[in-house]
Amino acid sequence: MNRILMVCMANICRSPMACSVAQHLARQQGRHRQFEFDAAGTHAPTSAKHMDPRARQALLMRDYQPVKTRSRQVCLQDFERFDLILAMDNANLAVLQRQCPGAMHGKLRLLLSAAPDLGFTEIPDPYYGDAAGFERVLALCESGARGLLAQL
């Protein structure tokens, strides 16, 4: 089984969206038993927060079921437990690189590294924007998840 952790800052927008999309696409491909997806944040609050309602709405509008509804912070055990740890942007990747034991750095990368034809490397944080920003993030998550599943 491939264990994959999606990581953003607060774990209430991008990473739970990416987790939901990847799980849905794996199920559509009949490969859901090959994968375990989870999401966490580098700066998630210690008291779990619910997914941003705009993120939830964007998922539901495209028939994705939100699978990660409460935030959590990345912990040291995640570096051992997961086979791949995919950051949404370079800032969160840098935090992960500082936290990660040296021997496990090979597990870290950006989600959009699986979709190089996009011409983007980062999924922007939609938190301070409007619904259109969440739609854009969802489209980028779809591209990254499709590329990831094709590579695995």
UniProtKB/TrEMBL annotation:
InterPro entries: LMW_PTPase, Ptyr_pPase, Ptyr_pPase_sf, Tyr_phospatase_low_mol_wt
Keyword Repeat among UniProt keywords: no
Occurrences of domain Phosphotyrosine protein phosphatase I (ranges): 2-151
Natural source organism: Rhodoferax antarcticus ANT.BR
Keywords per UniProt: Hydrolase, Protein phosphatase
SUPFAM superfamilies per record: Phosphotyrosine protein phosphatases I
Name used for this protein in its record: protein-tyrosine-phosphatase
Keyword Secreted attached: no
GO molecular function: protein tyrosine phosphatase activity
EC number assigned by the record: 3.1.3.48
Family to which the UniProt record says this protein belongs: Belongs to the low molecular weight phosphotyrosine protein phosphatase family.
Active-site residues annotated for this sequence: C8 (nucleophile), R14, D125 (proton donor)
Top-level lineage group: Bacteria
